[in-house]
């Protein structure tokens, strides 16, 4: 018989069945404003590297741009867009669009959770484990989870990268992680930077701890029940650099 599928008693079409099977792959997430995106070349590089590693084939950049343009249509100029590259019979490019998402406006709370991702350098299409970790800490009143080793060594957040300032230097955790697009853009700041092991116990000693992802950059106000120092000048430098990053056209 022909393959079929149904959701809550309703038969679904061929495209929906395809989506149900398309679980092996990777993706990138971006904020689109006025049909432009920050770091477009970095998004291409991420998709190309993951496609080569997972599928052993090159990425079709034209298919990526075509899918993004198609999901935006002629009328949508601002959106949260995801581009998936998933494999069934072969790799396919799928784009999704949702309402635009802005960064949180004030300091956020984080809770450490011992968890190590498999292939952490790849933004994986099946993100159930990270979503579960995020939901767990949200139930306890926290905004984000910090993924750590059992002894508290930080790698990243469940959907973010973590950075910190110490003595005028920008510090990034030296651990297996997803090298986020916004993190890569912030690495272009004209400020001394280094990677070093960072433990949860180190966070109160930093001048400013922050999180970043495609939404933007925002401060961390506390880890567990421990308040963290806040430095408006340092956050201002981060926002100034981020706000000056050029937006690349999608059309």
Automatic annotation (TrEMBL):
Q: Which keywords does this chain's UniProt record carry?
A: Aminotransferase, Transferase
Q: Which InterPro entries match?
A: Aminotrans_IV, Aminotransferase-like, BCAT-like_C, BCAT-like_N
One GO term in the molecular function aspect is: transaminase activity
Per the record, the domain of life is Bacteria
Which SUPFAM superfamilies would you find in this protein's record? D-aminoacid aminotransferase-like PLP-dependent enzymes
- In its keyword annotation, does this UniProt entry include Transferase? yes
The answer to keyword Transferase applying to this record is yes
The identity of this protein, by name, is Aminotransferase class IV
Q: Read off the lineage from the record.
A: Bacteria, Bacillati, Actinomycetota, Actinomycetes, Streptosporangiales
